[in-house]
Amino acid sequence: MTGELEMRIEAVKAALPKYEDAKRIEHTLGVLSECVWIADAFSLSDEDRTALYTAALLHDITKSKTDEEQLALCEKYGICLPADRQSVLSTLHQYTGAPFAREIFGDKVVCGRVYSAISCHTTGKAGMSPIDKMLFAADFTEPGRKYRSCMQIREYLHGECGKINKNDKAALSRLLDSTVIKIIGFTVTYLIEKGKKIDGEMLSAWNAMVAG
Ligand SMILES: [Fe+2]
Ligand SMILES: [Fe+2]
């Protein structure tokens, strides 16, 4: 990466303690390290790396806010969610995080691709870009997550990637898709078992990515 891009990432990283406590920063840096692994495995360009690393660093920037603060930010940024989505409060930080991060760091740092990745990192969405998918996967497979499902999917992603020729972009893209599908499948099953609501965007992501 060029010096300028590296400095941009370092500046975002240095600002994190203003918005996240030590435990969340640990998770955020775990997501960043997983994104570095993905960027290397997928041979990303400097520009793609910068977008992915920035999104990783900023993805949970509003996560520590209360439900009331989340709803106030939704109002501030004109985020209108259907009633059933408003009740899935744990997902609101993806919608508030993107405009909040842009307000602080500007739209050069939080460009359209970073904005998109932050705003679907919890639920996914139909028509996710590769950067969206990479952040979505890394949030689940980062090394600090010790749940069995997270470790299994991490093992799958890393293990299968090792079997693919780095120049075979189509195979890498299929692996990224199947990783995202596994994460959504696990999450939906878990939510059903717990009798919890499923965000409609997650179902849209599922329907857009599975065949038939
Ligand atoms: Fe999050
Ligand atoms: Fe996260």
Question: Would you give an account of this structure?
Answer:
The model has no long low-confidence stretch (mean pLDDT 94). The longest helix is centred in the C-terminal third of the chain and has 25 residues. The chain is 70% helix and 0% strand. The radius of gyration is 17 Å and the shape is globular. It has 212 residues and is mainly alpha-helical. The protein has a single domain, classed as Hypothetical protein af1432. It binds fe (ii) ion (FE2) (2 copies).
Write the layout of secondary structure elements.
Elements: H1 3-15, H2 22-41, H3 46-58, H4 67-76, H5 83-86, H6 92-109, H7 112-119, H8 130-141, H9 148-162, H10 169-193, H11 200-209
Helix pairs in contact: 1-3, 2-3, 2-8, 3-7, 3-8, 4-6, 6-7, 7-8, 8-10, 9-10, 10-11
The chain binds fe (ii) ion (2 copies).
What structural keywords apply?
single chain; globular; 11 helices; 70% helix; mainly alpha; Hypothetical protein af1432; binds fe (ii) ion; 212 residues
Ligand inventory reads: fe (ii) ion
The coarse silhouette is globular
Number of self-contained structural domains: 1
Secondary structure tally: strands? 0
Structure at a glance:
The protein is mainly alpha-helical and 212 residues long.
